[in-house]
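Here is one chain, start to finish.
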Amino acid sequence: MSTVISLPEPGPAENFRIERQEVGAPGPGFLRVRHEAIGLNYVDIYQRSGLYPLPAYPTTLGMEAAGVIEAIGEGVADLKVGDRIAYVGAPSGSYATTRLLAAEQAIRLPDTVSSKRAAASMLKGLTTYMLLKDVYPVGEDTVMFVQSAAGGLGSMLVRWGKHFGATVIGAVSSPEKAEVAKRLGADHVIVGRETDLAAEVHRLTDGKGVDVAYEGLAGPNFLRVLDCVRPFGMIVNIGQITGPLPDNLAKEVAAPRAVAFARPSVMFYISDNARYRKAADRVVHHLAAGIGSDPSAEYKLEDVVTAHQDLETGNTTGSAILLP
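Its structure:
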């Protein structure tokens, strides 16, 4: 029997229900995986609230986890019972102690990468790889801006951006989070929700602005960050925590700023299995080399309501996980 967090319908975190469900034998091409750690991501909030509707309800959330293979279906040749693996992707369902998983999603973990680190890092790592390598290639000549630089994805953007040689300007809401961003390697950190971001960024860049900005709040914040980007630079939206994007987005981006806009989907990015496995291999490589972080917050699976409330209200820094 598996403990499963069920969501009968979209809504607040209090909608979650704890259930016990039978998990059968895996069919052809599938695995049965016993989870050791489960990733907690802001996309889970969007799905739970209904902003990103799921195909049917009741449903189980969760886009990533790490664990141990318990059983293997027919036709799976490159994995065995007892292997440690991590995975990312649809369909959701990782909020459970055990689940069935398509074998093509499983990424074998080396002994040097713990299940906790993998569960906290794989989806954010894939997103970071997509953003820094494919959406806007970042290198030694790049000056980048990261909103929420002490958050789960933001902290990884800071750390990997520095690894790739970029100059990183981060923005955070408090002095405590500023210390986190500085420890991660940010060259400059702007503190405070009401701070004039553009003025600070232009001061730090001798009036030039940044080459690329990663912004995940949307709402009024989008235009504040847009003013930080140099002409012919790029602003990348990676979330809508405080509201939707502006209705007049094309006008605001195209004139008078001449700034490119991207809103990439990591789920589309990894829907191609070859691309998913290539990017996941690089993420695991970086995690094994120490370019990654262990979770900063851990919750029991049964405490998923509290976990969602903390994530939604910004009471976490870095990455958080659920433990079966």
